């Protein structure tokens, strides 16, 4: 997981700087997706074989997550969104 923390840090920073939550989350998802996909050539060169796990899991996960995040960010209040986000960052840090 090459992008662990990249999207979380970006979303946290943008939310703290009072950007709209849906824009902050969408930006974080986009940066995470770019980070993961950008590492494919590196891992392919290191292992001498393509990593199909990224294509099968990460790309659909980013598409589905990005689509769902837009509606979640609009449906939940900013305080609840921040609490959910803090919980997710702590969960991903512990796992």
Structure description:
The chain has five helices and no strands. It has helices at residues 6-16, 21-38, 40-47, 52-75, 78-94. The chain is elongated, with a radius of gyration of 14 Å. The longest helix has 24 residues, at 52-75. With 95 residues, it is an all-alpha fold.
State the helical fraction: over 70%
Global Rg: 14 Å
Low-confidence stretches: none
Largest sheet: none
Structural class: mainly alpha
**Number of E-state strands:** 0
Taking the alpha carbons of the first and last residues, their distance comes to: 12 Å
What is the number of helices? Answer: 5
Which shape, going by the Cα principal axes?
A: elongated
N-to-C SSE series?
A: HHHHH
